[in-house]
Design brief:
The chain has helices spanning 25-36, 46-55, 64-73, 99-113, 115-126, 141-152, 156-187; strands at 2-4, 58-60. It is mainly α. The radius of gyration is 28 Å and the shape is elongated. The chain crosses the membrane at residues 159-183.
Length: 196
């Protein structure tokens, strides 16, 4: 299976950044395979990369948030594996801008309060249901997010045995402690026992 990224990602025209600067052996090996492939496996845009994936025999690497959005919109796509690396995003402000601390505090508050998650759900799922051309090829939309979440999450029935073992382990431990205490008390002769 061929794989690639958007053409701009590893372009040497990016200021101050070259693909050879990356020390990761995995990334270097992947780059060598992509660069040697004929015809070129690079996609000019994310849309063209996704279109190639839909035709088959092709895996497309792109930013995780974009992949998550594309998978939510088109049930014929799936995200495989985790992230190759993690990069954060920021909002640029002048160094002495008064709005900087206000923005930072608001973002933290929205994140901790769950508002960012609610907005993502609202704009990605509620207002933008999947592409109509892909609806017949996957679960009903209302169940799509819950079924994918339930398939990757373990429920209480899956881990119930762990709790049973933990409970009996604690019970046996408590009984052993009580038994050892009684044993130690009985070992000391009655006349030598100190009372409080």
């Amino acid at each position: 299976m061929k794989f690639a990224v958007i053409q701009l990602v590893f372009s040497e025209s990016l200021p101050g950044e070259k693909r050879s600067d990356n020390d990761s052996p995995l990334i270097k090996r992947m780059w060598a395979v992509m660069e040697a492939a004929q015809p070129s496996v690079f996609a000019e845009t994310n849309k063209k990369g996704v279109d190639r994936v839909l035709r088959g025999g092709y895996a497309y690497l792109m930013e995780s948030t974009t992949i998550e959005y594309m998978v939510q919109k088109n049930c014929q796509l799936t995200q495989v594996g985790g992230q190759l690396d993690s990069k954060g995003y920021g909002i640029a402000t002048p160094p002495d801008a008064k709005i900087r601390s206000v923005l930072s505090a608001a973002i933290v508050e929205f994140h901790e309060g769950g508002l960012l998650f609610q907005l993502k759900e609202k704009w990605w799922k509620t207002r933008n249901p999947p592409d109509p051309s892909s609806v017949g090829k996957c679960h009903l939309y209302s169940n799509a997010s819950s079924s994918s979440a339930s398939s990757s999450e373990m429920g209480l029935s899956s881990v119930g045995g762990v709790f049973i073992v933990l409970f009996f382990g604690c019970l046996v431990g408590a009984l052993l402690c009580i038994g050892e205490f009684i044993w130690e008390v009985l070992k000391v002769p009655y006349g030598e026992r100190v009372s409080c």
